[in-house]
Amino acid sequence: MLHTPITAFYGGLLGITFVYLSILVVRGRRAGRISLGDGGDNHFLGVIRAHGNFAEYVPLTLVLMLVAEINSSYPIVLHSAGVALLVGRIVHAYGLKHHSGASWQRVSGMILTFVALIGLSVQNIVYLY
User: Fold this and answer.
1) What number of other Cβ atoms are within 10 A of residue 112's Cβ?
2) What residue ranges define each of the domains in the chain, with the CATH number in brackets?
């Protein structure tokens, strides 16, 4: 049976998303002539944090997904985690970019991200037993 590399698919989509967020930071730096920090611009701070938060959560979650995939996790588990992570990170980034305070996008994005992170963590622990 041919195995489709599920983690590679979501890693590719998340990589493209990360590049997009990186471009937003570069554009903001050029437009505001800001070399370090946020220049006191709360909107730009949201853009920076969307990029940074993505970089903080996605790598570990993808590693957990890859380990689960290597250990023959069910494809539905991997796809569920991949969709939760991808949608969660996009919705969270949107919330940070467009809202200065708490928003349903930020909260729901974090919940989806935590569902993927915790779900894959538990999946990997359960596999051991």
Assistant:
1) 21
2) 6-128 (1.20.120.550)
